Amino acid sequence: MKVLSQQLIKQNNLKQVFALVRSNEGISRASIASLSHLSKATVSSLVEELIEADFIVDEGAGQTTRQGRKPNSLRVENEKNLIAVISWSAERFQMGFAALDGTVSHYQETVYRDEEDSVDQLLDAYHRLIGSLCEKREQTRVLALCVIVPGMIDPVRKRMYSSVLPVKTGEWVIRRFRAALPEIPLAFFNDTACFAYAEKAFDPQVENASIFVNLSGGVGAVMFSAGGMLRGGNGMTTQFGHFSVDRNGPLCRCGNCGCLEMKIGESVLEDRAREFMPMEKIQAFGPMTYESIGRAADAGDPDLRRMIDSMAADLAFALGNLITVYSVPRAVIGGHGRRLGRYFFERLRCHLSVCGFRQFVDDCEIRCSNAPEPAELIGAARYFMDNHFRFYENMDGALFLR
Fold first, then answer.
1. What is residue 178's predicted lDDT score, i.e. its pLDDT?
2. Total Cβ atoms within 10 A of residue 91
3. Spatial distance between the Cα atoms of 131 and 166, rounded to a whole number of angstroms
4. Which secondary-structure segment (H or E) carries 262?
5. Whole-number Å distance between alpha carbons of 254 and 268
6. C-alpha dihedral over 154, 211, 381, 377, to 10 degrees?
7. pTM here?
8. Are 379 and 198 in contact (CB under 8 A)?
9. Helices 2-23 and 375-387: crossing angle, nearest 10°?
10. What sign results for the dihedral spanned by CA atoms 333, 334, 337, 340?
11. Of 114, 194, 260, 347, which one is least surrounded by beta carbons within 10 A?
12. What band does 139 get if pLDDT is binned at 50, 70 and 90?
């Protein structure tokens, strides 16, 4: 027990030192000791281990106004450590490598080929991605593969449940990935959790009692409280997208009627548009995305403005109730929904003024996400490093579903 406790303490200390270097490029050993409350000798030992293992780099004497010997500056080692990330959505998938500092390389977005199994296409694309990396970087190691899904991950049954993805209900998707990739550490995360964790990385205020709302193909929400994301990255916190905003509305795959994501999800925009414009205009408009309808509404298109206003009213009804239940100081709208434009957010704030418990809603700041694109890939990699990665442990074949 004593040995295990010592190993756990060391592991936590290594992660703390690594996190400080990642968040403060050019930080010195002395500053790490001050911020971490570890002794200078302990910090020096941990830093040397991380340098030896190629997780951080000593860049030599840094710039300072202090007299005397200048302290060495540290940064994370990005060239030799990458995390492969796939974001799986209804019609396409995004993938790339996330470095330890959050930058993304080899990014690509691919539309599914018709009549071919989507899981097979994802695995094929992953192998090509790895092949492209091996041709250019001989010493680079891939620490894990993170798969982001718009659905819930059941860590006990090792099952994925999604009302958006083109997979059969109950299909053993996780087992298929594990069988096809037996050695690499593999993690499955909910898309909303990944968007939210990216937001946390770029705005530390978010982790102190906030709601993060993901508007994408579906709709989700994550709660932050006391410095953490409730229930982790598997999407088991809330099913905000399946909050009914119209009990007589269309039947959702979840079995509920009038679900929020059936009214405002990006994947149903064309269906929703039929309420506000003739089919000829819909066909002439082209692909309907949050960005395209938001741009048209901001330009003054009357039909799109009516549609955007109705979507804002549906979200305000659901969000006002969520704020009433949890009484949080801020709600952040992220995912692809932040592309909906100025008019949408004006109408959302207007509709919120008559939804929910007044004091709670009036005290809640509503704003767009600050995280850079592609936010979900950045969030997945950051969540994996912070919550699942273990320095100096053999993680080959490990599976993470929380």
1. 95
2. 13
3. 26
4. helix 260-264
5. 15
6. 100
7. 0.91
8. yes
9. 150
10. positive
11. 114
12. confident
Phi, psi of 368 (to 5 degrees): -85, 160
Q: How confident is the model at residue 317 (pLDDT cuts 50, 70, 90)?
A: very high
Write out the two tokens for 55. Answer: 């997780």
**Alpha-carbon 289 to chain mean position:** 20
Q: Which of 281, 284, 287, 323 is nearest to 306 (CA)?
A: 281
User: CA-to-CA distance for 390 and 10, rounded, in angstroms?
Assistant: 11
Cα maximum dimension of the chain: 75
Confirm if 29 and 17 have CB atoms less than 8 A apart: no
26 phi and psi angles, rounded to 5 deg: 90, 5
Element (DSSP H or E) covering residue 202: helix 191-202
Q: Do residues 401 and 158 touch, judged by C-beta distance below 8 A?
A: yes
State the Cα–Cα distance between residues 208 and 228, nearest whole angstrom: 8
Angle at 158 between CA 169 and CA 196, to 5 degrees: 90
Q: Omega of the bond prior to 374 within 30 degrees of 0, cis?
A: yes
Which residues, 6 or more positions from 171, have their beta carbon under 8 angstroms from its beta carbon? none
Token reading at 395: 């993680």
Radius of gyration of the chain (CA): 23
Six token digits for residue 33 = 């000791």
Cα dihedral angle (245, 322, 155, 183), rounded to 10 degrees?
Answer: 100
Each residue of 235-259: pLDDT tens digit? 887 789 999 999 898 888 888 999 9
Are 153 and 188 in contact, with CB atoms under 8 Å apart? yes
- Those residues whose C-beta lies under 8 Å from the C-beta of residue 305, and which sit 6 or more positions away, are 297, 343
Q: How confident is the model at residue 167 (pLDDT cuts 50, 70, 90)?
A: confident
Please state, in angstroms and rounded to a whole number, the distance separating the CA atoms of residues 318 and 335.
17
* DSSP secondary structure letter of residue 294: H
Q: Sort strands 399-400 and 186-190 into parallel, antiparallel or unpaired.
A: parallel
Length of the chain: 402
Crossing angle for the helix pair 290-298 and 342-352, to the nearest 10 degrees:
90
> 141: helix, coil or strand?
strand
Tokens of 139: 């010493």
Closest CA to 285 of 342, 112, 274: 274
